[in-house]
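Give me structure tokens for this 142-residue protein.
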Amino acid sequence: MRAQPINRIVFITRVFWASPNTILGLIIGGVGMCFGGRARICGRAIEFYDGGTKWFVQRLPHGQFTLALTLGHTILGQTDASLDISRKHETVHILQYERWGPFLLPAYFLSSLYMWLIGRRFYRDNPFEREAYDADGGEHDL
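Here you go.
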């Protein structure tokens, strides 16, 4: 019977630990909504899509190929369909944010830099992406 309050405390702690990145996602998604974007809550994430959010995602490096981007407990997607397609993959990133908290973005970028410096693919060979693709059943060798 006591497991429920403990689980709630653990969840709140994870949300708080990921919150610096979530705040960044809320700002980007909120601005996106000012330019025709939409939002919805799905699972443990707030998803933003269309309008200014789509514009933002498309302007990232390789953004035309990016379906969605996760920041903490927010997912920034191009369209509602792109969110549906990428949800399992992006949910893995949410769990990574819950583990790494404010250190995830620096660790992610350093991992990408390291992969690039040793002649590997900076995105597909990044351990954070490999974990997400493995959980999603996707291919890393594309």
